[in-house]
Amino acid sequence: MSAQPWRQFGDGPLSRAAASVHILLVVELLLVLTTLPGLVPLVLLGPDPRNLPLVAACLLPVGPAVSAALYALRHQRPDLTDLRPAAAFRRGYRANLPAVLRVWAPMLLWLTVIAVNLAHLPAAAVPIWWAVPLVLVGLGVSLVGANALLIASLFTFRTRDALRLALHFLVRAPGVTVGNAALLAAAAGVTAVFSEAVLALLAALFVLAFLRIGAPMIDTIRTEFTA
Known about the structure:
Layout (H helix, E strand, L loop, with lengths): L2 H9 L1 H32 L7 H8 L2 H13 L10 H35 L1 H4 L6 H24 L4 H14 L1 H20 L2 H6 L1 H11 L1 H10 L3
């Protein structure tokens, strides 16, 4: 008699909402903990172009943390009475770390080079309109990197194949591309208006939105590019 009410509790809409909140809170806590070594110095760094390489170094732990969060949110058990988001986060972190760093580190390097060039345009005595192609290249690198990060987090491809798929879906899935661009803009806006710390506190929601935006790409890859 007691097992049936518990099963119904686990399947009801209120239980599903509570489970979703629980998962997001656990993932948020783990995101903060795994990015804390870079987040603390990042918040303390001043807005000096000379600090841009240090900013990139501080952001290095973000890629694996976001990847683990994507994995944890994607691989939740259907049984709401047996939620283990922390275990899924740890499993995703360990499994994805090498592949994600092979995508994340070069992307940070490219973006750092572009940011340094943008910061020193006046000193280089080049036309100001050079900023436009640099910004466009930076946006393209960010969007391809976002696709590649999502692919590396949920699938097992060689790095060059993950990058090819990321570039391919930049054009094939315009909805995903536009959605990711809007998400990047929102993240930049939160950082500019508030701080990196506020963005970190909203990280789980941004990762969930990133996963939902990329769902059409994920489904297509699973159907067409995996056995």
